[in-house]
């Protein structure tokens, strides 16, 4: 039996979707345990190119069963769209994708409030995806949430009526237009009928699978430093993103976790506001243009920076990382020199990530080491020995600094563009 958690060791967008896709061939169950459709995972394989937000990225392995745990918040329209897309693409998820009835629903007022809160904050906006994630988690912990179980127990209408009375007052106070009860009720009744065949209590299924020695692959949404407690608060997401969240979000006790694979991009990116110590501010520079990316979920251009090893080492220690999957090494090809942040200083004194808050992190000085780059195109390399010496040294530098072995190296977006060490 293996229970493997795949996490991002930075601010998301590390390439977890690809990592889960190629690891899923040996999994009996692939599962999401946190977050919502604010996470976008890109998968490229024999079925095509997919941007997935709720269905586990390992669903393409035909021997697997996909699970969406109760720790995930669900936008029903997005989930229905993904299911239909996957079925039309020949993947076929009927009978092998199950959604916990404990999961909370993103309602129309959550998305409206998400946008209104951001606008009200002005320059202090946190840069949310405006998909209603923060407001739905706020409702979850303040006993105002709506779950799939509410439909089965026939209290959906009552809870919706109460919530609309509350939420319409807040929406109006912030200058927005309220929602009509009948319209929302009918829309979500329709969603429930479409998704009812996929709803299933997962506790016994998970527990029986653990007893039977089945292999689980757990897919984290977002990245370590968007965690509510350990991330760059308040520029974070609304859920816990470290592997321990699988216990609450899926029902897997921590003692069963056998591996934690930290997906680490060969440089650093983040979307939205918040500190990025190694950020490259010269938008006209060759490096900025080379690292430039567009987020799968929001379509926003990602901010970019050099690899931050202090950040990755903190993620490794926080999550008990056992292996690293280093992605996008091919993007560094063509650079004569590559800068890597090895540690932080504040007022000339060494300091760790955990010693400062988000605002203090903006004041630290990243200390860089410059290493030689390589000119060769490495996208066709399929063994470590095929990589240029300087590329090999870059990989070795990462694992020595983080004190975790690099077991996989990504040299392209496709599933097969992965070197196994």
Structure description:
- With 421 residues, the chain is α/β, with parallel strands linked by helices.
- The protein has 3 domains: 3-99 and 200-261, Adenylosuccinate Synthetase, Chain A, domain 1 (3-Layer(aba) Sandwich); 108-146 and 149-195, Adenylosuccinate Synthetase, subunit A, domain 2 (Orthogonal Bundle), CATH 1.10.300; 264-420, Adenylosuccinate Synthetase, subunit A, domain 3 (Adenylosuccinate Synthetase, Chain A, domain 3, Alpha-Beta Complex).
- It contains 13 helices and 17 strands.
- The protein has helices at 16-23, 76-88, 108-121, 133-141, 149-152, 156-173, 181-195, 203-211, 245-250, 286-291, 309-319, 358-361, 389-402, and strands spanning 3-8, 29-32, 41-45, 48-52, 65-68, 97-99, 216-219, 259-265, 268-270, 303-305, 307-308, 323-327, 335-346, 349-351, 365-374, 406-410, 418-420.
- It has a 9-stranded mixed sheet, with helices on both faces. Strands 11, 13, 14 and 15 form a 4-stranded mixed sheet that branches. A two-stranded antiparallel sheet has the order 3-4.
- Helix 3 (108-121) runs parallel beside helix 6 (156-173).
- The protein is globular.
- The two termini are 22 Å apart.
- The mean pLDDT is 94.
Layout of secondary structure:
Blueprint: E1 3-8, H1 16-23, E2 29-32, E3 41-45, E4 48-52, E5 65-68, H2 76-88, E6 97-99, H3 108-121, H4 133-141, H5 149-152, H6 156-173, H7 181-195, H8 203-211, E7 216-219, H9 245-250, E8 259-265, E9 268-270, H10 286-291, E10 303-305, E11 307-308, H11 309-319, E12 323-327, E13 335-346, E14 349-351, H12 358-361, E15 365-374, H13 389-402, E16 406-410, E17 418-420
Parallel strand pairs: 1-7, 1-8, 2-5, 2-7, 5-6, 8-12, 11-13, 12-16
Antiparallel strand pairs: 3-4, 9-10, 13-14, 13-15, 16-17
Helix pairs in contact: 3-4, 3-6
């Amino acid at each position: 039996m293996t229970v493997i958690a795949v996490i991002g060791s930075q601010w998301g967008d590390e390439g977890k979707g690809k990592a889960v896709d190629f690891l899923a061939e040996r999994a009996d169950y692939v599962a999401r345990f946190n977050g919502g459709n604010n996470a976008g995972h890109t998968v490229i394989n024999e079925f095509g190119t997919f941007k997935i937000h709720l269905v586990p990225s390992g669903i393409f392995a035909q021997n697997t069963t996909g699970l969406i745990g109760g720790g995930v918040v669900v936008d029903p329209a997005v989930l229905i769209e993904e299911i239909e897309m996957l079925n039309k693409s020949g993947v076929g998820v009927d009978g092998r994708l199950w959604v916990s009835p404990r999961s909370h629903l993103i309602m129309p007022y959550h998305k409206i409030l998400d946008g209104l809160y951001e606008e009200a904050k002005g320059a202090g906006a946190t840069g949310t995806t405006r998909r209603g994630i923060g407001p739905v988690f706020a409702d979850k912990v303040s006993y105002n949430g709506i779950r799939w179980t509410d439909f089965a127990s026939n209290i959906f209408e009552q809870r919706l009526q109460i919530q609309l009375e509350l939420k319409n007052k807040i929406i109006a106070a912030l200058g927005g237009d309220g929602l009509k009860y009948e319209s929302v009720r009918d829309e979500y009744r329709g969603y429930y009928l479409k998704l009812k065949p996929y709803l299933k209590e997962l506790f016994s299924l998970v527990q029986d699978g653990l007893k039977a020695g089945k292999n689980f692959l757990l897919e984290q949404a977002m990245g370590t430093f968007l965690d509510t407690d350990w991330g760059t608060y308040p520029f974070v997401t609304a859920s816990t993103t470290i592997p321990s969240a699988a216990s609450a979000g899926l029902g897997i006790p921590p003692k069963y976790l056998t591996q934690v694979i930290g997906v680490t991009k060969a440089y650093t990116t983040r979307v939205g506001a918040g500190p990025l110590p190694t950020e490259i501010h010269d938008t006209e520079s060759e490096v900025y243009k080379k690292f430039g990316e567009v987020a799968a979920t929001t379509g926003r251009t990602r901010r970019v920076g050099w690899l931050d090893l202090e950040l990755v080492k903190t993620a490794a220690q926080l999550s008990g990382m056992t292996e690293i999957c280093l992605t996008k090494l091919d993007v560094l090809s063509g650079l004569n020199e590559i800068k890597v942040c090895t540690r932080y200083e504040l007022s000339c004194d060494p300091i760790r990530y955990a010693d400062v808050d988000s605002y203090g992190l903006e004041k630290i000085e990243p200390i860089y080491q410059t290493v030689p780059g390589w000119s060769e195109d490495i996208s066709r390399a399929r063994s470590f020995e095929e990589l240029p010496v300087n590329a090999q040294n870059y990989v070795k530098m990462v694992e020595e600094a983080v004190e975790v072995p690099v077991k996989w190296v990504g040299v392209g977006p496709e599933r097969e563009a992965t070197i196994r060490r």
